[in-house]
């Protein structure tokens, strides 16, 4: 009986431990009146879950003179060892010379307001440009294009400026071509070596960005459509660009490839 009791206790501990990944990070959100409404814990192996993720495909430069071809190939996007891997690679003698992945929830999920938490470890090296960001599902404001319909950058990092994390919002009134975007930076020296939580808290009045528990960015609603198109559903994007106007401003170091961004989980909370 003593042995049986110990066995039962051990099994209970295993079950409790297995559920920790789901519960630990959510405890703070749950206590603040939020409910987990969407997540991927990457507790499987293979391609990203097709019920949750799609891909942007192509080598158009993506509006920033980027150098990579975005693919859905497992060499560029896959799940293994409990993380999603987005991997940028160099292919000597090929055109385009670089490949990567841009995974999106467009067509699968989008959200208006809430808390998004993405725990990730970033790539390193000159020429890498990882991003965790959002675009609208509907492009129905202003001229129907960018920046009128908004962009939310939860995390951007350029490899030639290691450890400097950016959060920004773009819209008609405030955007990077005019150098008027709302933006802020935080220094995370080990962002390429360790996982950190990149967090957006978004409601009708403002957006705030955090790394782990540190808030470093606020974008407030200025009560104008031109300055606040963030009252409709946006979808999530995660990618590594190679080169481009910003990421390649100091060139590309070909000796660093392959480079990867690893995502431990993605969680979305909204008010109960």
Q: In a nutshell, what does this entry contain?
A:
It is built from three helices and 17 strands. With 272 residues, the chain is mainly β.
N-to-C order of helices and strands:
HHHEEEEEEEEEEEEEEEEE
User: What is the helix content?
Assistant: under 10%
Shape: globular
Query: What summary fits the major beta sheet?
Result: 10 strands, mixed
What structural class is derived from the secondary structure elements?
mainly beta
Mean pLDDT score? 91
The CATH architecture of the largest domain would be: Sandwich
Number of helices: 3
Low-confidence stretches: 1-27
Rg from C-alpha positions?
A: 20 Å
Total separate domains: 2
- CATH class annotation of the largest domain: Mainly Beta
Strand tally is 17
Distance between the termini: 44 Å
CATH topology of the largest domain: Jelly Rolls
Approximately what portion of the residues adopt beta-strand conformation? 35-45%
